[in-house]
Structures are given as structure tokens and as C-alpha cells.
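Annual report, structural modelling task.

Input specification for the magnesium ion complex:
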Amino acid sequence: MSETGSTGGSDNPTTDALRARRDAVEVVRVLQASGYKALFAGGCVRDELLGLHPKDFDVATDARPKDIAKLFRSTAHVGAHFGVVIVRTGPSEGVEVATFRKDGSYSDKRRPDSVEFADDIADANRRDFTINALFLDPLAAEDSPSIHGHVVDHVGGMRDLEDKLIRAVGNPEDRLAEDHLRALRAVRFAARFDCQIDPVTAGAITEHAGDLTGVSVERVGQELRRMLSHTSRARAVELLAVLDLERAIFGAPGSGSLLRLSGLDASADFPCAMAAWIIDRQGFDGETRLYREALCLSNTEHDSVDAIIRIARDLHADWFDRSVAFQKRLAVKSEFGSALACVAAVDSPLADLVSTRVAELRASPSGLEPQPLLTGEVLISMGFRPGPAFKEVLSEVYDAQLEGRISDLEGAKSLAQKLLNTQEPGGGSGV
Ligand code: ATP
Ligand code: MG
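The model returned the following structure:
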């Protein structure tokens, strides 16, 4: 369902986005031609009004799922419980068509216990924020040259969009109590669209910030991932602190400084932004497990965040004074670019020096990451038995290669021989 889906519209329409709109208009046309009400709904309307090009379009209609299935050749019921059908009319991913509904109570604070089909007014009222509760009839006469259709606004969303305000639909306290994830959605939309949060909505968010602990870490993590992946990440994090949500997420407020996070390049990805934020919060020696648990990071995400922090720490510390082998080994790590971005965010002269040094290392005769001259097979062919010393020898010989102390197989073998001969007897590798 789109309620967990896209990352929002972009400035330029891609072929996929144009195709998605064309397919969605076709769905609306078929539904309307059969006498149903059918409108674009939610995020796609908001994005178009902001001049962005949505990647996916949701259609809302008074047709029931079984009626929708009769009208189109290819349909799939993805959320029968919520009255959601995916309609495929063309090569695009399919258009999500949802029957207008009002939500029942929210005993698990996540999903309504039941839904009841209703009209477009009730459907607008179940949505979280006024700017997300707009509809658009793409086939009606255009409201203005910049809007391709007629906007249907039951909640004052147009005015709020013009005023750049995130305002809960209805009573903010009640709407947040139903689903506290909406507090994080408010932050994400405010940051992404450069909006303020309406003071009453903001007050309710802060007052009930502690309730966020009732929301699953998967959902919290997903929202945070989306916030941190966007260029507006520093504003989002600032809002999390101001609204007291940061404390609810991590059990402790932030340090206040977002120097590194706000200095990051726009293109930084989630692990890089997460690492920058962690360094801002607690320096280089903090415990990253806390973040894995609070945001449900995958092992891969956690390991790369961890590695980025460690590499950035080394770059700020004594990387230039370390051996060539150490410098090269660090520079080829997959997280090195992100770590360098974290350094550049606060110290671009240092980042420039690092880049220059890496270029020098790359241009050295042995290069940055040469194929190892010595392998385990070579050692075995020399008559050595695999054992704990094996790995050490391979690593030491590779260091010598990285540093240009050896440059051919003969040199590698003779160094290995020397190293193995000096190993303690019984070390596992011998002739
Ligand atoms: P994005 O560009 O991030 O996808 P979106 O507004 O499209 O933004 P979705 O999560 O795709 O967000 O949800 C689609 C629509 O469903 C929203 O615009 C909103 O009207 C409604 N919605 C989504 N999540 C909630 C929620 N937790 N509570 C109430 N309404 C919601
Ligand atoms: Mg969406």
C-alpha cells in the first residue's frame, strides 16, 4: 500500500512518472464513465500542487472493490480489508484504487480495527494532515494553468499548502492518539516541504511525545530513514529535538549541535547521515547498538554506520601518520567515501588533503588495491600447512606489497619463508 511506500515527488518528471499519471487518469476515466466518483487522492495531489512530479498516484472512489474488479481486466486485491485494489491498465506498476472509507477505532495505535466504506468527505477526514487530504479530479476543467484538473478540498488543505503549514485534520490530540507515528510524519513533511507545524498540532505532538514509544521500532526506523535520506535531514532532526521526539526515540535528548549533519552534502545516503548524526550526538566513541535497536537497523546498515564512524575517527586522528599499508587498507573500504563526506561536513581542508593523499596512493606503483602476490595456495605449494599463522603471514606480505617493499612473486615467497621460519614452533604452520 502506498501508506508505507514512496519517497515523494521529484522536480523533473521521469518517463515512469508521466506513464504513472497517464495510467491513473485512465483509471479515473473508466470509473467516471461508469458513473462512479473517482479522484486522485492524498500525496500525489499535494505533490502536484507543489509543482513536483509524483512517482505514484492513488485513486479514491465510491466504487466498491468488487465493482472495480468488474471494470478492469487486471486487478489485484492488496488490502481487501481496507478496500484497496491495484489496477493495471498499462506497463506502469499499477494504480492503487481505494474505496472512500472512514476508519474505525485504533486499539493497536497502528491500523484501524475496522474500516467502513464512506464518502469522500469522511475519507478526507481520516487522513493525517490537511495537505495530505486533498483530492483532484484530473478530468475536470483546470482550476489554473498550473493545475491539471479541479481540486476538491474538504479540510482547508489548499490554504495550509499556500501557508506552508502542517496541520492535523480534525482534533490533533485525537488524531495523534490514534496513531502516534503521525508525529514523525508531521516532522518529515515539514522538513521535506519546508513547512511550519501548526502550533496546536505541534503542541499535541510535544505533549504526547512519550507515546511514540508505543509505536513499533520498524515504523519509527522507516520514518527516520526517509527523513535522513532527504536533503532536509538537518531540519527534520532539529524538529525532532524541538518537539521532544528525539528523547522519545533514543531515551535521551540530543547534544544540540548538528554541525556534521547539516554540513553533509545533499547526496549523502542514510548510513552516512545516520553516522554524522551519531557523531554529532555523542562523538566517536558512542555505542551504536542503541541506534540499531531504536531504529531497527539491519545488520548491514548497522555495520556500515559503525564502519563510517570508525573511519571518520581515524581520518580526524592520525591517518596521515600511519603506514602506507594502513592508509591504503582504509581507503579501499566501501564506507570510505561516506566517512570522507562526514569529515568534509566539518573540515573540508582536511577532506581535501585526504583526497589528495588517496590520489597519490592510487598512483603509486603498487596501486591502491593490487591483487595479492601471495595466496594461500602458493603457501601450500611451498609446503606449508594451513594454520593460524597463515593469515598473519598473508597479511604481512600483503602489507609489504602495498608499501612497495616487494613487487613480485619471488619477493613475496621469500618474505613468507622468512616470516614462517621465525614463527613459534607449534604455531600450526610448518614444513
Ligand atoms: P510520500 O510522498 O511520502 O509517499 P504520502 O502523503 O503519499 O507521502 P503515503 O504514506 O504514501 O504518504 O500515504 C498516502 C496517503 O495516505 C497520505 O497522503 C495520507 O492521506 C494517508 N495516510 C498515510 N499514512 C497515514 C496515517 N498514518 N494516518 C492517516 N493518514 C495516512
Ligand atoms: Mg505516497
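The CA atoms of residues 14 and 348 lie 34 Å apart.
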